[in-house]
Predict the 3D structure of the following.
Amino acid sequence: MQDLKASANQSPEAAGVAAPASRPSVTVAICTRNRAALLEKAVRSVLAQANSNVEILIVNNGSTDDTFRLATDLSAADPRVRIVREPQIGLSIARNRALEQAAGDWIIFFDDDAVTEPGWLAAYERFFSNPPNPRVVAVGGAVIPQYEIPPSRWMGIGEMELGPKPFCFKRGSNPWECNSAYRREAALQVGGFDTRLGHRGDITGAYEGADLNLRLQDGGYEIWWLPGASIRHLVHAGRLNLRWRLRAAFSTGRSAAIQRVKSRAPNVRKLYIAGRILVAPLHCAINLFVSLMTFPFQNGRVAAKTLLRAVFIAGFARELLKQL
């Protein structure tokens, strides 16, 4: 994990980043890599709802396409838009860079392939101005999938929608990272995002938000659900096939192993690793058997789910073997 404490004390000018003319209270951070075709739409959807108390911080994560020129044009046209370069590839690394450089007390993480729904930013600002209690340091809202092509029948719908009433998440449950906000000081205090987790270029990953949230909850802080703060998130065509889902399941399993091992007490980690490795072959075999037996039913949905679960377990065990 990066040393965020020293970086957090570094001024934007020292880091080669132009400081905003007046300090905003909210930062919307958009970490992006090689998605110039989508970035402008994402930024403009935020700008349409932003006032002078909001900055949009674009973190260019080693892009090789037209991202830098586009971001520069957006910044030149609107003083609310600011650019930061992060050459080291990795979504968690880019998000940590955003935490370091954000001017706002609250930072909202927003994906470069998403667009806001009406009232999104206003809902966040109302929450920031009057949180339920001083222990609240994170909050997130709904994520509505927008498929680039119609998904196959065997795929479940990936949607985050938990109802019209705000509530505090229980330990181990979270909003999705693509539409969530953190009190900057608290996120830095617990070490930011673990850079071993999350996407790294073309390598899929996960659990970076869940890991950060768990550390916040263990520190006595609260994470809340925010109705009315909805976004639409693009589901790319390249992710709507079994091959990509299998690769993602394996990588997600590896991420889960990292996160779960580190959450165990040091004196039981080796025992936990050994026990999970021993039962992994049986768990894989059971899921593969269920997948085979259920293939003709429910458009293959149960079969696909159990097959992906078997691959997830394989990735989980692979990472445990590496750590052992």
